[in-house]
Predict the structure.
Amino acid sequence: MNKYGTQAMRYWKRHAPERYRRIENPTRFFTELGLEAQGQITDLAQRIETNPALTLARTRSSGQTYLQDVAHRMTALRIAEEVVMQQLAWVTDPSLPLDEARQEWNQTTPNDENLITWAERMQDSPDLMPATVDLEQKAKDWAVPVWFLEGMVAAEIPRQYLEEHQSLLAEAATIRFLREVH
């Protein structure tokens, strides 16, 4: 059993003991779950790593070092682990099915329009641009890289910049949603 299966097994034993007891062969179940998680994590991490928006950001700087490349790959892996394990392995008992909870979340949380308004406000008053720490926090809250926020402010038309990075925003929305349901 790989580490993902082991993590899921421990989690189920602790947070869903009744469901765990109903599993006929826990070792086989969590071994298969771990292998499925590992495959999905590998695929998602690779998609995040090769996302054109992220690749462009990495190659803009001619000073890309080995350590920066490793950090980029590790970040992609951690994001993929968080997303896949949330969807596949962690047991939650929401009052709504996951798809309905996502629809409700989409309707009740700040949307991408808020980012456009923020970027336009920063363009109008550059002295309001947040400090690096605040910008990093905003990036973390929105589950986007700092370079994305900086690029949005630097873009001639923030809305167009946002539309060009829809895949990154979709992944970020999934991460934010999963953070809240867990």
Notes: The longest helix spans residues 26-49. The CA atoms of residues 169 and 182 lie 20 Å apart. The chain has eleven helices and no strands.
